[in-house]
């Protein structure tokens, strides 16, 4: 009789723990339909930026023998892109909801079965560059680019070919390659190992 | 005594019978062992005799062959890069290669016009003047959106691309940013390729025994299943500032050449996977492909041949076996 009561109490405690764990996991990961809405919002903000940049600053030139022409075109595009969004600030694209979504995705990847390989890939690249990324500024000339691990890219929303996800130290950056402009960023998005 | 002789004869004939019935995959491995043995001694007939330039050429220089040079991590603009380039030009006159593949970090530091002049156009001027074409891959020190549009790099505005010479298809990847679109592209293009030889090159090595960077494990996890599935023969990478030839992995030959401008001295960790390495000088490679054989020769800045050998083209069966199909 006594053993029966102990078993019953144990089962109740186990059930309570299991239910609370399930509830906390549900709270940490947004429901799929909510993630869909966040991804859609992100996609439309990206498209709006790219449309503005193309309209105001144009696109990459055709291949040329002249490195001078390429440098000149890059400078012109950067200046026009800055001018087109003079008040651009962190969070214009990575809103709090979108940032939270990306943080969840990145954390899940790094905690998942490929996490160790991704971390190794990040360590394999050049050391953290000596600059702090800022919205609407460029990636400094001469600084090496950190490669973005492919498994991370497989788990993030697809971007138009003009834009890339970049990692600078622990910051996560949306980068426009043609004008060399940091479009937006999430500071400290890569969880510390 | 007679019984002993009979036993030896029986043993020898049995061994030769076994060798004849060996599967293609094993034959390919057998050829590799020969290549490994061969690399220290060089080919039977080094092409130095009777020449005034004194260059040690270990390629067969067969007619109709595909010949090219390989450089990686070259664009420093420093004296050593120029010295390697001079050696390349001397060999071009003998070997007659007509293109160079660049494994990334083509321009270090700034990307102003003066940088392109000092770090590419000037050192390789004699090669460019002779009509040699350069096909660049992007490294982590390169500016992707300027270099892909720079015509002398022959990227035609793309971060990743393919080109063909004779029976050899080259697949040039951007390992800085291996997004799903690029993974789909390489999968599709390798699948469609009917070339005898499939060579991939990109900046970050999948296997490496260098201490400063080492292998890119995440990139390896994504690319090697594709390479195995479609029978890639050889992979060239840079990034690690050394020369390394590795033992074949899954029937694919991997070379690292990241010392055509930069150098990381004493960078190697001892590893059984390494076939040959150099971490004390800069260098470049010469490659000649003829039929089912790929001949290679790695030459240091001082003109020494530090590695040479031949790779036998892997059969489709051996690739299938390696891929587990």
Would you give an account of this structure?
The complex is a heterodimer of chains A (193) and B (325). By secondary structure, chain A is mainly α. Chain A has helices spanning 2-28, 32-57, 67-84, 96-111, 115-124, 150-154, and strands at 163-168, 171-176, 181-186. Chain A has one domain (34-186). Residues 19-27 of chain A have low confidence and may be disordered. With 325 residues, chain B is of the alpha/beta class. Chain B has one domain (51-323): 4-Layer Sandwich (Purple Acid Phosphatase, chain A, domain 2). Chain B has nine helices and 13 strands. Chain B has a seven-stranded mixed β-sheet, with helices on one face. In chain B, helix 2 crosses helix 9 and helix 7 packs parallel to helix 8 (217-229). Chain B is globular and about 45 Å long. The model of chain B is unreliable at 1-45 (pLDDT under 50). At the A-B interface, helix 3, helix 5 and helix 6 of A face helix 4, helix 6, helix 7 and helix 8 of B.
> In the CATH hierarchy, what is the class of chain B?
Alpha Beta
Number of helices of chain A: 6
| CATH architecture heading of chain B | 4-Layer Sandwich
The biggest sheet of chain B, with number of strands, parallel, antiparallel or mixed sense and barrel status, is: 7 strands, mixed
Query: How many alpha or pi helices of chain B?
Result: 9
The percent of residues in helical segments of chain B reads 25-40%
Mean pLDDT value of chain A: 86
What fraction strand of chain B?
15-25%
Q: Using only CA atoms, what is the Rg of chain A?
A: 22 Å
Per CATH, the superfamily of chain B is Metallo-dependent phosphatases
Q: How do the helices and strands follow one another from N- to C-terminus of chain A?
A: HHHHHHEEE
Distance between the termini of chain B: 49 Å
Strand fraction of chain A equals: 5-15%
Indicate the overall shape of chain B.
Answer: globular
Number of domains of chain B: 1
Q: Which structural class do you get from the secondary structure elements of chain B?
A: alpha/beta
Q: Which overall shape of chain A is indicated by the principal axes computed on the Cα atoms?
A: globular
End-to-end span of chain A in angstroms? 50 Å
The unreliable regions of chain B are: 1-45
């Amino acid at each position: 009789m006594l053993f029966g009561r102990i078993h019953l109490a144990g089962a109740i405690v186990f059930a309570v723990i299991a239910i609370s764990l399930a509830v906390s996991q549900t709270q940490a990961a947004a429901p799929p339909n909510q993630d869909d809405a966040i991804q859609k919002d992100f996609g439309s903000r990206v498209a709006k930026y790219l449309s503005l940049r193309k309209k105001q600053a144009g696109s990459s030139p055709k291949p040329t023998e002249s490195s001078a022409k390429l440098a000149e075109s890059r400078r012109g595009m950067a200046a026009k892109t800055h001018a087109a969004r003079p008040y651009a600030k962190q969070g214009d694209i990575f809103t709090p909801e979108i940032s939270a979504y990306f943080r969840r995705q990145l954390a899940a990847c790094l905690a998942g079965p490929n996490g160790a390989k991704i971390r190794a890939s990040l360590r394999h690249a050049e050391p953290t560059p000596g600059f702090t990324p800022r919205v609407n500024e460029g990636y400094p000339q001469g600084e090496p680019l950190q490669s973005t691990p492919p498994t991370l890219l497989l788990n993030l929303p697809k971007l138009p070919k003009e834009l890339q996800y970049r990692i600078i130290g622990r910051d996560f950056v949306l980068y426009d390659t043609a004008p060399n402009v940091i479009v937006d960023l999430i500071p400290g998005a890569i969880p510390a190992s | 005594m007679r019984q002993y002789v009979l036993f030896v004869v029986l043993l020898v004939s049995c061994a030769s019978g076994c060798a004849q019935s060996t599967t293609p995959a094993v034959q390919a491995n057998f050829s590799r062992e020969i290549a490994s043995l061969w690399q220290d001694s060089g080919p039977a007939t080094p092409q130095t005799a009777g020449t005034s330039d004194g260059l040690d050429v270990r390629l067969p220089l067969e007619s109709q062959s595909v010949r090219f040079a390989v450089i990686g991590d070259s664009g420093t603009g420093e004296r050593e890069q120029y010295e390697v380039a001079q050696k390349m030009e001397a060999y071009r006159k003998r070997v007659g290669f007509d293109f160079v593949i660049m494994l990334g970090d083509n321009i270090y530091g700034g990307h102003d016009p003066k940088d392109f002049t000092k770090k590419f156009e000037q050192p390789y001027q004699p090669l460019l003047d002779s009509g040699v074409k350069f096909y660049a891959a992007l490294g982590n020190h390169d500016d992707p959106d300027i270099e892909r549009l720079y015509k002398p790099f022959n990227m035609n505005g793309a971060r990743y691309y393919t080109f063909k010479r004779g029976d050899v298809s080259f697949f040039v990847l951007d390992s800085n940013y291996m997004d799903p679109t690029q993974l789909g592209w390489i999968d599709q293009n390798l699948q469609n390729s009917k070339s005898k030889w499939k060579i991939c090159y990109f900046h970050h090595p999948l296997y490496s025994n260098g201490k400063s960077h080492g292998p890119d494990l995440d990139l390896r996890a994504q690319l090697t299943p594709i390479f195995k599935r479609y029978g890639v023969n050889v992979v060239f990478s840079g990034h690690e500032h050394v020369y390394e030839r590795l033992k074949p992995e899954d029937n694919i030959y991997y070379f690292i050449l990241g010392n055509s401008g930069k150098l990381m001295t004493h960078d190697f960790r001892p590893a059984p996977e390494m076939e040959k390495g150099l971490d004390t000088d800069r260098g470049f490679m010469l490659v000649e492909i003829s039929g089912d054989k790929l001949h290679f020769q790695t030459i240091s800045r001082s003109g020494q041949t530090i590695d040479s050998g031949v790779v036998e083209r892997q059969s489709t069966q051996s690739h299938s076996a390696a891929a587990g199909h």
